[in-house]
Amino acid sequence: MAKNPENVNNEDTPEVKPAELQTKLCEICDKVGSTRCGACKVSRYCSGSCQKEGWSKHKLVCKSFQEYSDFGRPPSKGPGSIFRRAVLFHPDEEKPRFVWVEFKREDIFGDGLLYDNPQLKGFGIDAGGIHYILENARLGRELPHCLLVRYRDNFMNDGSKVNKAIWKTLRSDVKNKTRDWRGPVLVYGLEGVDHEPVPSIDLDTSDFRDIVDWLNTRE
Ligand SMILES: [Zn+2]
Ligand SMILES: [Zn+2]
């Protein structure tokens, strides 16, 4: 594979790497990801050893991603409706997987601005719980876009079951320290933070790695 031309200018931007370069870095370390997973053709690695290190998590969604290629996107349900690829952690499933989520471009706040509004009811998630992931703390990188984690606000007290799919993504030393996730958890992407209207985007397997790192670094 050809070397990324962006790499040449690396010295000019020692502090914050531009988003476009960040998407071309190895998922495991700070080097340029010059090879990609041969199966999903998305996740980038600098070397065989980093690919091997990432495999225990990547294997959870590599096949699922291939089953949710752009060709399988459901057709729009009308003006302002679009389906985007997101990541679902279903409480009763053994691992996470990709799903299609419908977004409706709607005037949510009655101020004339149209927001991409995800339709979450079908996933058993009320509007309550929300968290914005904007950086990967393990790698010290800003993310190229915003990941939104949605969950039931009151999952500790509403009878929600322990989320087995999230459990699968946690390192053993984190399992007893982190939040006791329960009920369905869905993660989708926006081009930026939604203080103003920003378009929804598709997530892929490298976004999944950022989600896993977040689940394993938060307290
Ligand atoms: Zn690497
Ligand atoms: Zn893959």
TrEMBL record:
<keyword id="KW-0862">Zinc</keyword>
<dbReference type="InterPro" id="IPR002893">
    <property type="entry name" value="Znf_MYND"/>
</dbReference>
<dbReference type="GO" id="GO:0008270">
    <property type="term" value="F:zinc ion binding"/>
</dbReference>
<feature type="domain" description="MYND-type">
    <location>
        <begin position="26"/>
        <end position="62"/>
    </location>
</feature>
<dbReference type="Pfam" id="PF01753">
    <property type="entry name" value="zf-MYND"/>
</dbReference>
<protein>
    <recommendedName>
        <fullName>MYND-type domain-containing protein</fullName>
    </recommendedName>
</protein>
<keyword id="KW-0863">Zinc-finger</keyword>
<keyword id="KW-0479">Metal-binding</keyword>
